[in-house]
Amino acid sequence: MMEMILACAGLGIVAGLLAGMLGIGGGVVIVPALVIILTSQGFPAEYVVVTAVATSLCTIIFTSISAARAQIKRKAVDWDIFRRWSLLVVVGSFLSGFIAGKLPPVVLETGIAIFLLIVSIIMLSKWVPNPSRSMPGKVGTSVLGFFSGTLSGLAGIGGGNVMVPLMVFFNVPMQRAVATSSALGLPLALVGTLGYLISGWDLSITDGSVGYVYLPAAALIAMFTVALAPVGVALSHHIPAPTLKRCFGALLMLVALRMLYISI
């Protein structure tokens, strides 16, 4: 138990800093780390991945509140994008809890890893979006919002790993994309967690589990992510956008390769 407490505390510190700096909710680190932690604690193997995803989303509720408040104070959030994406992001996130519960663990974990690897390659490359490209109209926006919410909910990543690259693709400045992703992360994580609670409500996985959410780990991680997220936000506004982009890509690649190694 002491090992789990220390591991979750350390994980919360790292995830909180990354959540504030990169607008990713910390889930990109929390999910693979929780897979390792839960496995080492003898957690039922068939529920390890989906529990890691659901628990990660639960912690992101609290991280997003902290990070979003800090970004709003800095007037960095693009509220037009927030209004256009928020509804479909929430719908996609809610449905993800029911989809993830039906997928084999290896399919879910491998799919998350491949997606993160593709995004990392794009972010690490010297690719620059067409300067004339702008955010799409209502139909395109609806598709992007639903896609972002569903994929983020399936991966338990709070949306930043999907929404930030998409916004950058449409020429939204990196710092603004990070801030807007932080604001969208709250409704996404809240409704996504609800989906995982409902879809796994009839299961009795282990003591401390409610639905697919493992409450002891969620509480420990959230305690530290909330404290460290504002620190990450402050750092993000002092780091040049290209450096922020490379850090983002390098982190995603490391996590993706680690997840592929474990799943294979």
In short:
The chain is an all-alpha fold and 264 residues long.
Measured between the Cα atoms of the first and last residue, the distance is 28 Å
Low-confidence stretches: none
Radius of gyration over C-alpha positions, nearest whole angstrom: 17 Å
Please work out how many helical segments DSSP would assign.
10
Number of domain units: 1
Largest β-sheet summary: 2 strands, antiparallel
Helical content class: over 70%
Q: How much beta, percentage-wise?
A: under 5%
Topology diagram in text:
Elements: H1 2-22, H2 27-40, H3 48-73, H4 79-100, H5 105-124, H6 138-155, H7 160-169, H8 174-199, E1 209-210, E2 213-214, H9 215-236, H10 241-263
Antiparallel strand pairs: 1-2
How would you sum up this structure, described in words?
The chain is mainly α and 264 residues long. It has one domain. Helix content is 77%, strand content 2%. The protein is built from 10 helices and 2 strands, in the order ααααααααββαα. A two-stranded antiparallel ribbon has the order 1-2. The chain is globular.
